[in-house]
C-alpha cells in the first residue's frame, strides 16, 4: 500500500505541472478564433441610422470590426483609440462597430458623448456575435480587403496593437492593387 501511494504522487503532479506551465506561458489576450484565415461571416444588419450594411459591401479594403457596448468601461478608452485610428488611416480602413448586448438608445447616447462616425450595427439576438464567437466586449476582428479574417484582439485595443494589426492589412491591400 505504501508503494502505491508514492506512485500516485507523480501521476497527479506531472499532469498538473504540465497544465500550469502551458497556461502561464500564454498571453490571455490571445484567445484563438476559428475564423482566422476564413471568410468574414455573411450578415445583413441595420445601423443606428437605419441604413443596411452587408458583409459583401465591406470587401475592397481592410476592415476593423469592433464588438462593443455602452456599459463596457474599457470600451470608453478604446473608443478614443478607434477615433484616432480613423483620423490616421482615413478611408484606407473601414471601421465598423457592432453593438453587443445593448440597446440602440444607449449606443446613440454613447456615440453622442464620445464621438465616432463609423457605422454602428445592431445585432438583435446576438446572432453575428455568436458567428464570431464573441465572449464579451471589447473584442475586435481584422479583415483583409478580400474579406478574410486575419486577426482577433480580445480586450481593449491600444495604439500599438491596432497599428500592429492594421499595418499588415494595408500592406496586403497595396500588393493586391
Number of helices: 5
At the fold tier of CATH, the topology name is: Glutaredoxin
Count up the domains. Answer: 1
Radius of gyration, whole Å: 20 Å
Question: Globular, elongated, flat, extended or rod-shaped: what is the shape?
Answer: elongated
Which H/E pattern describes the elements?
HEEEHEHEHEEH
What percent of the residues sit in helical stretches (DSSP H or I)?
40-55%
* Structural category: alpha/beta
Q: Just name the CATH architecture.
A: 3-Layer(aba) Sandwich
Number of strands: 7
Q: Kindly report the average pLDDT value.
A: 87
| Binned strand content | 15-25%
In terms of per-residue confidence, which ranges show pLDDT below 50 for 5 or more consecutive residues? Answer: none
The CATH homologous superfamily is called Glutaredoxin
Q: Calculate the terminal CA-CA distance, rounded to whole Å.
A: 73 Å
Highest-level CATH class: Alpha Beta
Q: Please state the oligomeric state of the protein chains shown.
A: single chain
- Main sheet characteristics: 7 strands, mixed
Main sheet strand line-up: 2-1-5-4-3-6-7
Amino acid at each position: 500500500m505504501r508503494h502505491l501511494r508514492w506512485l500516485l504522487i507523480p501521476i497527479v503532479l506531472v499532469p498538473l505541472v504540465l497544465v500550469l506551465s502551458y497556461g502561464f506561458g500564454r498571453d490571455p489576450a490571445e484567445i484563438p478564433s476559428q475564423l482566422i484565415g476564413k471568410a468574414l461571416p455573411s450578415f445583413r444588419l441595420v445601423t443606428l441610422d437605419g441604413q443596411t450594411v452587408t458583409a459583401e459591401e465591406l470587401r475592397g479594403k481592410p476592415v476593423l470590426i469592433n464588438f462593443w457596448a455602452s456599459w463596457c468601461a474599457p470600451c470608453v478608452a478604446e473608443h478614443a483609440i478607434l477615433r484616432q485610428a480613423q483620423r490616421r488611416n482615413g478611408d484606407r480602413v473601414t471601421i465598423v462597430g457592432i453593438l453587443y448586448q445593448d440597446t440602440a438608445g444607449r449606443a446613440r447616447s454613447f456615440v453622442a458623448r464620445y464621438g465616432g462616425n463609423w457605422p454602428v450595427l445592431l445585432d438583435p439576438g446576438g446572432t453575428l456575435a455568436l458567428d464570431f464567437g464573441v465572449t464579451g466586449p471589447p473584442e475586435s476582428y481584422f479583415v483583409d480587403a478580400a474579406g478574410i479574417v486575419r486577426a482577433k484582439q480580445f480586450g481593449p485595443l491600444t495604439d500599438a496593437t491596432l497599428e500592429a494589426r492594421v499595418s499588415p492589412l494595408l500592406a496586403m491591400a497595396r500588393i493586391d492593387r
